[in-house]
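Hi R.,

As promised on Friday, here is the backbone we talked about, encoded as structure tokens. Could you run it through your design pipeline when you get a chance and send me back a sequence?
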């Protein structure tokens, strides 16, 4: 048979209920301490000599859907210790019951803290009102800040990466314990010196997983020279894909020749294409001037001084990354081109009408896209010479060359075959990148050295040189089970918390919410 419910079981331990009344929409409970003595906060001596009594009004957990206010009849005691500077002191309660000067019981403050961790300021305040725990958004954030971040166990395997306070303007650093799968620190910037100072205080760290950037590599090398650095496998795969895209961009001139799009007839260009073509002619003049200086033995620094262009601009020209005719993007018409060709062959030549029919099929582009396509087709039919053959963008070509042939249309297969036959170096670069990605997936460290020998003489030699410079970390990425992907997931969580606070949370509040909630 169950025990009867006692009023004292509804209030925090150590108190006895004297009275309970309804006060409007709240319940008022008067309580007193159940023990007869208290310890002096100055010297620790226990005393039973009561000096006086006073009342403390506290908020507590709700009962039966009503807020609860506790009226504690607290006492002041005389301190009997001769050497103690306190003659009179107010009694103290256990910290897990009631803190000094607190206006809420510890159990209510614990719930307020977790509401602030989970929801932030205003959302948590709105939810707290529904729970009959009226508390302001400022109070919630103060509680989160006051409790701060819990102390973490010294890690041995960490992941470190940057995150954006404001994209392209300000960045911070996040550090995660990969073994315990939780964030342990947020740093205010991504400077190597800041990361080095934090890492220097953690000499027990054995493994540092990081991205391909040089800043964290330098900081880890200086602070933890014996630790193993592991490059992030996802970034390695991404860098390899970008290397192949750069190889395609460098080969655009040969690609145009291979697919029959090297000859440009200005009479067939639309107004937008004519502007791009004129810009291309100007770029060619600039490229020729820079390449002429380079052939004459001038260094990049000297070319920058003579021409006034930036160092990155000159480097792109020398690498052959500024030689494309049209800066094209994948057209929104790509999916609808077969239908348009069929309508054109059936005699429908009105661009506005074609656009209206496409809109009914789900096309979201503007009318100008369709009318320019119709204008180009109309001009091509009127001209006696060769029609303009538009080459796809470098990104589109890279995608077509790396997906399965079964997923390509007939025209795409013909274009890819022409490129493979006309630019064999690009085929070699594709196979080299595929071999590297397969090596990462299979964790085959023995294939790294043969791959480097093969890649150094291909179009992706710059990527291979980067792997050589970071060889130890890349080797560890292939052989080690650790990677920085988990840190990327923690960054996603951090961004969610930051956006909940409308991007205005300072570092201490962000750290308290991200680490405290973990």
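Update: got your reply. Pasting your designed sequence below so it's all in one thread:
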């Amino acid at each position: 048979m169950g025990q009867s419910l006692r009023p004292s079981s509804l209030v925090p331990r150590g108190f006895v209920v004297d009275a309970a009344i309804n006060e409007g929409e709240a319940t008022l409970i008067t309580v007193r301490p159940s023990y007869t003595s208290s310890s002096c906060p100055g010297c620790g001596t226990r005393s039973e000599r009561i000096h006086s009594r006073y009342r403390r009004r506290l908020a507590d957990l709700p009962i039966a859907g009503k807020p609860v206010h506790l009226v504690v009849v607290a006492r002041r005691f005389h301190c009997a210790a001769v050497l103690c500077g306190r003659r009179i002191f107010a009694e103290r309660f256990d910290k897990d019951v009631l803190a000094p000067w607190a206006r809420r019981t510890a159990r209510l403050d614990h719930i307020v803290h977790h509401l602030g961790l989970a929801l932030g300021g205003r959302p948590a305040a709105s939810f707290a009102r529904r729970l009959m725990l009226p508390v302001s958004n400022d109070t919630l954030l103060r509680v989160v800040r006051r409790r701060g971040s819990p102390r973490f166990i010294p890690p041995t395997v960490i992941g470190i990466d940057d995150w954006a306070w404001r994209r392209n303007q300000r960045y911070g650093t996040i550090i995660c314990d990969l073994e315990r799968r939780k964030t342990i620190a947020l740093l205010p910037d991504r400077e190597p010196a800041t990361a080095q100072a934090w890492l220097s205080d953690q000499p027990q760290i054995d493994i540092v997983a990081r991205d391909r950037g040089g800043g964290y590599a330098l900081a880890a090398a200086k602070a933890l020279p014996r630790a193993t650095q592991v490059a992030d496998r996802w970034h390695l795969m991404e860098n390899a894909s970008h290397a192949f895209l750069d190889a395609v961009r460098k080969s655009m001139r040969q690609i145009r020749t291979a697919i029959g799009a090297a000859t440009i007839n200005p009479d067939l260009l639309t107004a937008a294409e004519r502007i791009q073509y004129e810009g291309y002619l100007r770029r060619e003049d600039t490229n020729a001037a820079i390449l002429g200086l380079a052939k004459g033995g001038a260094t990049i620094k000297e070319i920058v001084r003579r021409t006034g262009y930036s160092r990155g601009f000159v480097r792109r020209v020398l690498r052959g990354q500024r030689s494309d005719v049209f800066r094209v993007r994948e057209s929104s018409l790509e999916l609808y081109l077969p239908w348009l060709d069929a309508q054109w062959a059936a005699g429908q030549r009105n661009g506005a009408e074609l656009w209206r029919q496409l809109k009914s099929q789900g096309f979201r582009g503007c009318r100008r896209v369709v009318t320019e396509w119709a204008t180009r087709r109309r001009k091509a039919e009127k001209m006696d010479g060769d029609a303009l053959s538009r080459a796809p963008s470098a990104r589109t070509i890279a995608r077509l060359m790396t997906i399965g042939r079964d997923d390509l249309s007939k025209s795409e297969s013909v274009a890819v075959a022409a490129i493979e036959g006309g630019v064999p170096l690009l085929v070699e670069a594709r196979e080299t990148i595929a071999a590297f990605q397969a090596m990462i997936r299979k964790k085959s460290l023995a294939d790294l050295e043969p791959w480097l020998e093969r890649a150094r003489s291909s179009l992706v030699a710059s990527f291979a040189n980067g792997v050589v410079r970071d060889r130890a970390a890349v080797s560890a990425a292939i052989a080690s089970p650790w990677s920085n992907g988990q840190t990327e997931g923690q960054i996603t969580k951090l961004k969610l918390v930051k956006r909940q606070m409308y991007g205005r949370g300072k570092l201490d509040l962000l750290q308290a919410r991200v680490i405290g909630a973990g």
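One thing I noticed while checking it: Residues 274 and 392 are 17 Å apart (CA to CA).

Thanks again,
M.
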